[in-house]
User: Which sequence fits this backbone?
């Protein structure tokens, strides 16, 4: 983009913090810059929607034992005035067949979908409503786990490279599905709960950035039963202006009302901004 004085700036637009009047860009050397649109000679088109799509797959054949898996992640964000809406989805699927067997077994079939709406109340405070859905078809108890929350979000720390935000509020947690669901006293029911979500975004430099989201919930069953979902992603770009990126993703889940109780998953993707 070109400034009124003729200077040219290169960087990536930060949609979450930009508006009709202000554009926020991440510059490879200067970090985060906030510019009034009247300062710009050539003004970038403001897109209310911004998203990305990433895919990963692998396969192996060892001694006649064959296996393969694929995964997908997509993120979308809508920003207009004081309103913001996020969509974050992922899916992982894996198959295998042992030597001498004719049957193919499904080893992994899991996914998730997070929907969140925020309305800006002031510079640091938002009101939010969210739905966090997790599915793992391999679980014998609690294939489906959904948490619906409302509450307040507060930005604890923000500078040109780092943003830390916490959100807290009451929620409803539902667990259902699985071949042993009918045998479990907690499966197939919904519980009142409280949920605390912490999100950290850190732009390390023009090539590397980290996103960490931790969701801690306490369901009011047997006193308080805590559960936790931690997701972390390292995004790598060949240069600051590239739409192509690589991500290394980690998700770890602890849910004592499900069976199995814990689950850890790692994946690598190649994706593009849309």
Assistant:
């Amino acid at each position: 983009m070109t400034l009124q004085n003729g200077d040219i700036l290169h960087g990536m637009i930060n949609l979450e913090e930009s508006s009709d009047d202000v554009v926020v860009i991440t510059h490879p050397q200067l970090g985060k810059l906030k510019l009034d649109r009247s300062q710009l000679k050539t003004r970038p088109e403001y897109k209310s929607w911004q998203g990305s799509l990433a895919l990963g797959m692998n396969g192996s054949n060892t001694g006649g034992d064959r296996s393969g898996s694929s995964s997908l992640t997509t993120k979308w964000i809508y920003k207009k005035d004081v309103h913001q809406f996020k969509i974050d989805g992922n899916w992982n699927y894996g198959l295998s067949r042992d030597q001498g067997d004719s049957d193919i077994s499904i080893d992994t079939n899991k996914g998730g979908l997070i929907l969140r709406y925020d309305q800006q109340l002031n510079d640091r405070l938002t009101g939010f409503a969210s739905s966090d859905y997790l599915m793992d078809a391999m679980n014998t108890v609690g294939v489906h786990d959904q948490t619906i929350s409302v509450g307040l979000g507060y930005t604890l720390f923000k500078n040109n490279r780092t943003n830390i935000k916490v959100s807290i509020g009451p929620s409803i947690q539902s667990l259902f599905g699985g071949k042993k669901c009918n045998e479990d006293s907690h499966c197939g029911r919904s519980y009142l709960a409280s949920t605390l979500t912490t999100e950290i975004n850190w732009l390390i430099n023009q090539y590397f950035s980290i996103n960490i989201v931790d969701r801690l919930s306490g369901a009011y069953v047997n006193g308080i039963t805590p559960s936790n979902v931690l997701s972390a992603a390292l995004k790598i770009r060949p240069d600051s202006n590239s739409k192509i990126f690589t991500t290394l993703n980690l998700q770890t889940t602890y849910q004592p009302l499900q069976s199995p109780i814990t689950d850890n998953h790692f994946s690598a993707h190649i994706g593009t901004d849309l």
Observations:
- The mean pLDDT is 89.
